[in-house]
Amino acid sequence: MVQRYAVLGKDAPSGVALRYIISSPSSYCYFSDTRLHTGTRKCNATYNNWKYGFGRYSNSYGASLLATNTTQQVVISRYFARDIRYLLGTIDDAEPADVSCEAMLQGTTRLDRGLTWWKYITKEFGGRGAWVNTTQILGVVNGVGHNAKGIYSSEEGVAAILNPPGTQFLVSSLKPTASAISPSGPQLHWLDQIWVYFCVVMALQLLL
Fold it and tell me: Structural domain boundaries of the chain?
């Protein structure tokens, strides 16, 4: 849900900083026909169709963005310019909700699919600007499965929500300084921006 919105969603209004937090979805929308998993492809004709890829997109929202190869390249470039955090749990290894042929080509579990997605985008699109580990960062939460509370209350989860752009998952960077909490002192620079998060949507995503 969130990953597809990051693909086709409109830019945030001027002055609003928007971060997308993608946490262990059942599948991802790929940007090419490349799949890192191999096997029997009983869905050769459909594995790259929307929502698993750009093919045969039939919705009215965002239709013009996927209409041609040229517009698709614009969508891809925009995606990698966006502030995105990926969160995965190390024991999120139960059978996912989506066990279709198209989804299984992305991996067998949510953890597998998330790690495979990160490997795919860094391998295929790592050269599109300096987005790897800057504007887009992967966080893996140790000992947590498909559990919203476990993911978002973890060190990685809190940092994904609160850390400013371009920083790693370091909760220590959130600790205020004396001047930051002083009425007469300067505010932390990243508090000057409005952070908009789809926390409810992201929590629901974990349940789907």
Answer: 2-26+68-97+108-207
Cis peptide before 51 (omega within 30 of 0): yes
Q: 143-164, pLDDT tens digit by residue?
A: 999 999 999 999 999 999 998 7
5 CB burial (10 A radius; 0-12, 13-18, 19+): middle
Confidence band of 58 (pLDDT split at 50, 70, 90): very high
Please calculate the CA angle 144-137-27 and round it to the nearest 5 degrees: 60
Q: Which of 68, 56, 62, 53 is nearest to 124 (CA)?
A: 53
Q: What are the tokens at 123?
A: 């391998």
pTM for the complete prediction? 0.80
| Among 160, 169, 119, residue whose Cα is nearest residue 23 | 160
